[in-house]
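REVIEWER CHECKLIST
Item 1: Sequence provided? yes
Item 2: Single chain? yes
Item 3: Sequence as submitted:
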Amino acid sequence: MSQSYAMLKCYGSCSMSYGGHRPRWMSTRTTLSQKVAHDNEELRLRTPFIALHKPVEGLYAMNGGDGLHSYAQNSSHQRGVVDVAKPIIQEEIIIKLDIEQLYSTSQYNFRIADFGCSTGHNSFPAIQIIIQAIEKKIERERQLQNFDYQVFFNDQVMNDFNTLFASLPPERKYCAAGVPGPFHGRLLPKDSLHFAYSSCALNWLSEVPKAVQDRTSRAWNEGKVHYTGAKKEVFDAYSNQYDKDITSFLNARATEVVSGGLMAFLVPAVPTFDHSETTYTTPTEMDVLGSCLMDMANKGRLSKAKVDSFNFPLYFTIPNELKAIIERNNNFSIERMEILNNPGKHSLRSANERASYLRAVFEGLLVNQFGSGIMDELFERYANKLEESSHFLDPDNEKSIIILVLLKCTGDK
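Item 4: Structure as written out by the authors:
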């Protein structure tokens, strides 16, 4: 994967609460910009101006803007993760962050990056949590001076950074910069970060496993759109791709994070790979969406070949698998790793709310494969299927989990 040093070149904004006037947020459009697509009622989706090719950078961006189907309006499920992780992240920063060591190397600048920030709706509260914990740590040390903070917001190149920068908290205590590009590879200069953060993003793969899309392969996933319920070869292809991607992610961060720096990740996962017919976990939603696509293909609404060649580039790991991948990497020590229950699952109370949540996340992927003309029908079908099963609408049947991982960069680079 090619390296991308886009820091400060795409977007920038700086505001400090301790004096001076806050400069206006500013942004620079790139050739890979987004156009605003309107339906009859509201701003719905940002789509690329240019044709996309695989592997595709920017294909995974959430719906931009703040309309009915935007990520900003449909991310309460993900926000629940941030809320439940708050006291743990604060506790670990106060205990584990070596402020004096960072002072000696950073010249009073503290840099934070959020990998997979989307439009900032859930990113801003997380950054506030991190900075508040650092300031509390400094307050306890007393003789130490506070840092100047800089935050790098990273997401795919098609992410709606304009909405993110227009929504920046006016009283924030940090300078802000946008860093577009896939986070599985290098994005920032060596030893430039002191704290790396990511929430509900490390279940995304860099690409769909090639074998799954190869008609000559035993892992050809005909008629399905995900590995859940598929044959073993399909699952193995996804698992191998996840191992490769997380390893690449860790290697990239090992170069970017200073020795003694921390990383906190909230990773969507499942407790086990053995799903009974009565166990509902997040991956099952993609199976239901896939069945809606097949229904539409059977009715001639879209091409069956397009369904056969489409697969979601997401993988939901289990704790032991993720731990093994991290432990094979000699650049980080696991400071804390535990399972969290996401209270955000109780925010999706109806079939329509759950359909809107998935639409905000997956619409860009689906439009790229099937076009925008079928989206209303597709998600209406999806909501109807959920209505037919009370099991799907009971949040207590949601068995997926969140793995909280706190790592420290050991300096063995």
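Item 5: Key structural point noted by reviewer: The two ends are 19 Å apart (CA to CA).
Item 6: Recommendation: ____
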